[in-house]
Every structure is written in structure tokens, then in C-alpha cells.
Write a structure and sequence with these properties.
heterodimer, A: alpha+beta, HU Protein, Chain A, three-stranded antiparallel β-sheet, 27% helix, elongated, B: alpha+beta, 3 domains
Chain lengths: 64, 417
């Protein structure tokens, strides 16, 4: 089995769990997770106040 | 849910059709390759996942691939920031929301520099989703959306009507030339009269407005300005007279309507200065009515008489009901989708049937629920369910505070387009 195919399989498993907002831990590399960012208001330079939408963001915590 | 290393290895072994030990070794080799490449090159690109790179402090950072990020963020994908308040320079005197929020019927083109400009720059998906939202929610409603179209048309027509003023001035231009001599004499008399009066300020402004064409003489332009000067107050007086006429006529009509009921007569105050004449008129109108009523059927009519009073009393109740049924708000039936209004998105689902069920559930709870589909840039369709329709973002935010959990902490406000 080629390295590319192995990598594809690993990424497929990883991505499928991240889409379900699961936390995935891989020894030696770190932990992948999905964090929820709440909507927030932000003032721009021109004085406008803009409300950013919430978002689910992929977070990666490297192993120390 | 948490997937630890061992569980991941089991899944990988299943995917590779190998045993766990072999899968574990393969996974370790993959991890080592990433770490080595990141160390050597500063970054390592993993297709489908993203790019690992070294941060300033030497720690490893992952920049996820855009497609994966979008998949993970499918619930909010396509949403873009909305403007809560316009820039300070563009803020209207009446209040921050007056221009941007209070009038959702105004088209985007009429509000340069407001949120829509930025939103369109940032994503096009929002437009598609909201367009689809509008079209979806209008299915079967058809003409319900028309009043807003008409409103927009009327608002667009207003500046046009204002622009007609110079045109009316232009149509006034040829008049002096084609006018009979009598009028010219009148004009001269007006001119002489006006020359004795200090009308300098309006004369100047009007002379700036109505420019004489080609080689028109100074007298003609002065005549025009003088004529315009007289026309404006006359027109204003006419309008006032018409308004007064309709006002008093309407009052009289209302009184005669109540007079038909023949019950409220004594209760109606007559605030008009010409009390005596009006009362006489009212009495004259009322006098014939009791006689025939008594002649036709006195006892039943007396029983029936209170009915109109009930109607009169019921009118305010109807108004209250009408107020409650206004299209804006968090609760109530969704009678029409208000383009330009704001709604609170509480569900974003890929399953159409589930989204319909959620919408029904919210409607059963009394919320004004709307469902629409949003096509994400990746081509995936999500179905979003929003509750309430609000004039401004601040109204929507106030409504969010009334929502139960989890909606209160997990929602987003978008603008219906």
C-alpha cells in the first residue's frame, strides 16, 4: 500500500470524525477538535459595529 | 465524543485491512513524516487536512484546509457579518437604526456604504441562500410579497416626484411668450408691485433655480421668479384649504355615521368651533331616524340598537388584534416574509425533512418560523430555520434574550433578502 493511500485513509477517518465535532487524539502529533466560536460584535476602524457570525472551527493542540 | 489513539488505530486497521499492530506502526510512520517535514521545511501539507507549520514559539500549528473547515462549519457556512450600526460619518440624526434598519423596504442600491456592500464583497453564497430563502418561503404565497415591491416602487418614486419641480418650472417657461397680452399686463403689474416689496431673498433663490434659456431677457426671468413667488403661497393655501375641507368633511361623515346608530349621539363631543350650527345639522339628521324606527318596530329595534354600539366598542379590539398580527415580531403566524427584515437562525440542517419537523415544532410553540435552503459554495444544501422577523438587529437581539436554551446561546441573526 502506498504512502499516499495510507495518508488518504488516515485523513478520511480524521475528517469524518471532525465533521461530527468529535475530538481525535493521535499520539506523537496532538489532538484535533472542533471549537465553537460565539457570535461577537466588533468595531471597525471606520466606526461601524459589525456582528460576526458564530463558527465551528477546527482546533489543533500539539502534543508537548 | 472523544476518539483516542487506540480507537483511531482500530479504525485505521479496519480501513487498511490490516491488524492493529501494523496500523499503529503505519500511523506512527505518518506522524514522524509530518514532524520531520515540518521541522526541515517549516511546513508540511497534508491533502484533505491542511498544513502543519511551526509557530513563532516553535509549537506546531495546523491551518486546516478550506473545504474541511467548511464541512466542519456547515451549520454557519455562508453566513457573513452583519452591520449593527453604520459608520459615524453616515449615522443619521434620528438614530443609528433609522436609515439602515427602520426601513427594510429600501433597496440595497439606495443604501450605499451600509452592510450590504460589505456582505456582497465577502460572500456570494449568502446572497444565493437568502435569495433562495426568499423564493422558497414565497412559494404558494405569490402576491404576498408584492406590497413590499410596491413600497419600494413608491419610495423610489418619491425622489422622482421631487425632481418634477424643475420640470413644472420648465413647463412654466413658455408661458410668458404664449401668454395673451392681458397676462403680460398682469405680469407687469405684479412686477411693479413686487418691485416695491422687499422680496429679494426668494427672488435670488428662484432666479438660481429657473435659468432663462438662451437669450431670454432679464424682465422675463424676473417675471418668472415673481410668478413662481405668487404661485407657491397660492398652492400652499390651496393644499391647506383642501386638507381642511377633507378634515371637516371626514368629521361630518363620521358624525353622520354615528348618527345612524342613534345611540352615541349624546356621547360624542363636538370639538369644532361652529358648535351650534353643527349640532343643529346633526339634530336635523338625527330627528327623522327615531321616528321611523319607532314606527317600524319599536321593541325589537331597541333590542337591536346596542349591536352597533358593540361594533363601535369592538373596533379598538380589532385594532389590537391587527397590531398583534403585524408581520414583525418573535411570536405569531408567519403571514409574509419581509424582505430586508432580520431573523434569528436557530437550526441549520442538511436533512430537509428534519428541518421541516423543527420548523413545525417551533410553530407549534408559537414562534414565527421560517425555513429556507442555503446552497453552500461546496454545493451542499443546508436547510435553515429562523424565528421571528425584526425591523433591526437590536430588535432581534432583544428577542434573542427571550429565547430558551439552546437557542439563546446558539443562534445567529441574518437579514432576509
Amino acid at each position: 500500500m502506498t504512502e499516499k493511500k495510507i495518508e488518504k485513509e488516515i485523513v478520511t477517518i480524521l475528517a469524518s470524525h471532525l465533521k461530527k465535532h468529535d475530538q481525535v487524539q493521535i499520539n506523537g502529533l496532538g489532538t484535533f477538535s472542533v471549537s465553537h466560536q460565539k457570535k461577537e460584535q466588533q468595531q471597525e476602524k471606520d466606526g461601524r459595529i459589525v456582528m460576526n457570525p458564530p463558527a465551528d472551527i477546527i482546533a489543533f493542540t500539539p502534543e508537548k | 465524543m472523544r476518539l483516542n489513539h487506540d480507537e483511531f488505530t482500530v479504525l485505521l486497521a479496519r480501513a487498511l485491512d490490516s491488524d492493529e499492530k501494523e496500523a499503529s506502526g503505519t500511523l506512527k510512520a505518518w506522524v514522524d513524516a509530518i514532524l520531520r517535514e515540518t521541522e526541515e521545511n517549516g511546513s508540511c501539507d497534508v491533502t484533505g487536512l491542511g498544513t502543519f507549520r511551526k509557530g513563532e514559539d516553535g509549537s506546531m500549528i495546523l491551518d486546516p484546509e478550506k473545504s474541511l473547515s467548511m464541512e466542519v462549519n456547515h451549520k454557519y457556512a455562508g453566513m457573513s457579518p452583519i452591520e449593527v450600526s453604520p459608520p459615524k460619518s453616515a449615522q443619521p440624526e434620528a438614530g443609528e437604526d433609522a436609515a439602515a434598519d427602520a426601513d427594510p423596504g429600501i433597496s440595497d442600491a439606495q443604501k450605499p456604504g451600509l452592510e450590504e456592500d460589505k456582505i456582497t464583497e465577502e460572500t456570494t453564497s449568502e446572497e444565493t441562500e437568502q435569495d433562495i430563502a426568499a423564493s422558497d418561503t414565497q412559494e404558494g404565497q405569490g402576491d404576498e410579497h408584492d406590497p413590499f415591491g410596491i413600497k419600494e416602487f413608491e419610495e423610489e418614486g418619491l425622489p422622482g416626484a421631487l425632481e418634477e419641480e424643475p420640470e413644472s418650472g420648465a413647463s412654466f417657461d413658455p408661458d410668458p411668450e404664449s401668454r395673451p397680452e392681458e397676462n403680460k399686463d398682469d405680469a407687469e403689474s405684479v412686477e411693479t408691485e413686487s418691485s416695491s416689496r422687499p422680496f429679494t431673498l426668494p427672488k435670488l433663490s428662484l432666479s438660481q433655480h429657473v435659468k432663462p434659456s438662451g437669450g431670454a431677457s432679464k424682465n422675463q426671468s424676473r417675471y418668472k421668479s415673481e410668478k413662481m413667488m405668487w404661485l407657491i403661497p397660492i398652492a400652499a393655501l390651496l393644499i391647506v384649504a383642501l386638507l381642511l375641507y377633507f378634515h371637516f368633511d371626514g368629521q361630518r361623515l363620521g358624525r353622520t355615521h354615528l348618527g345612524d346608530q342613534a345611540v352615541v349621539q349624546d356621547e360624542i363631543p363636538v370639538p369644532i368651533p361652529e358648535e351650534e350650527n353643527n349640532e343643529e345639522q346633526v339634530i336635523q339628521e338625527f330627528v327623522p331616524s327615531p321616528d321611523p324606527v319607532e314606527e317600524v318596530a319599536p321593541p325589537p329595534d331597541r333590542d337591536v340598537r346596542p349591536e352597533p354600539v358593540e361594533d363601535v366598542a369592538a373596533e379598538p379590539a380589532d385594532e389590537v388584534i391587527r397590531d398583534l398580527a403585524l408581520p414583525y415580531g418573535l411570536m405569531g403566524p408567519e403571514e409574509e416574509v419581509l424582505i430586508g427584515a432580520y431573523t434569528i437562525v436557530v437550526h441549520s440542517l442538511r436533512n430537509e425533512r428534519k428541518s421541516e419537523i423543527e420548523k413545525q415544532r417551533l410553530e407549534n410553540q408559537g414562534y414565527k418560523a421560517t425555513r429556507w435552503s442555503a446552497v453552500l459554495p461546496s454545493g451542499i444544501t443546508t436547510y435553515r430555520v429562523g424565528i421571528g422577523q425584526f425591523k433591526s438587529v437590536s430588535d432581534a437581539e432583544r428577542a434573542v434574550e427571550q429565547l430558551p436554551e439552546p437557542f439563546r446561546s446558539n443562534n445567529f441573526i441574518i437579514r432576509i433578502r
